[in-house]
Specification:
Elements: H1 3-27, H2 32-56, H3 78-88, H4 99-126, H5 131-151, H6 156-173
Helix pairs in contact: 1-2, 3-5, 4-5
Length: about 180
Amino acid sequence: MSAARQFAAARTVLGSIAICVLLVRSAAYLGAELELWMEHLAVIVGLLFGLWVVKSSRAAEPAPAPPLPAEAKPCTDIDEYAQFTVDLWMSGDGDKLDLRQHTVMSLGLSGETGEVMELLKKWLRDGKLDRAHLRKELGDVAYYWARLCRAHGFTPSEVLGENQHKILGRKARGTMHGSGEDR
């Protein structure tokens, strides 16, 4: 296993243990006996998940993605793509943001993100990645993300630029790892 895969596996193991510890701390309000039981369960789940990740990290590297279909043209302007999502949006009133439309956009983004995660899980589990399918699902994530940007009056390029500035600031401060907004 390569050093990068070992590092990724170790990071995932530590992350799963951290999640289990949070669950244990949350259970503290329910009583000492339950907390002890949850602590043992958390350690067991963390170890099992860690073993699964290490085993799964030995999966083969994915094959290169197949070329785009002949009728698909690469989109190189994210703001033009966002306008496409507005023009295509089901209500016909792309600039109006009501609760129903916002909910559809949010659930769409969440659902498509789940589909991407499912493909990546199968890659870890089975050692095979359908890159053409992954590309389609990532496109669906981008569609809902770009639509939400426009629905809230942002251009995707503004959002990406601000995010890039934030991440570069974290790198300059040496705070790339950790949690919290103000790091």
